[in-house]
Amino acid sequence: MNAGLTAIGxxxxxxxxxxxxxxxxxxxxxxxxxxxxxxxxxGLLIVGTRMALALKTGDAEEHLKxxxxxxxxxxxAACAGxxxxxxxxxxxxxxx
Length: 96
Hints:
By secondary structure, the protein is mainly α. The protein has helices spanning 3-7, 19-57, 64-87.
């Protein structure tokens, strides 16, 4: 339910999109979530491999920054949906 409409007492006027539309959208969002998860795991594996190769060859490179960038991207991707839902920014639920 749209938090903004509930706050002003117009919750009964909220628009609910047809289930045929939301089912397809949920499928696409599910695929995107899996791709983001796979990209995060691949990023961590790539940074770990680069760090292992640098240590084996004797190069003293700083890899902590790369790890932090990948981990920050994973946290942002994981928190994007719940953050939008918490704030109540579901723009598709408008009064009809």
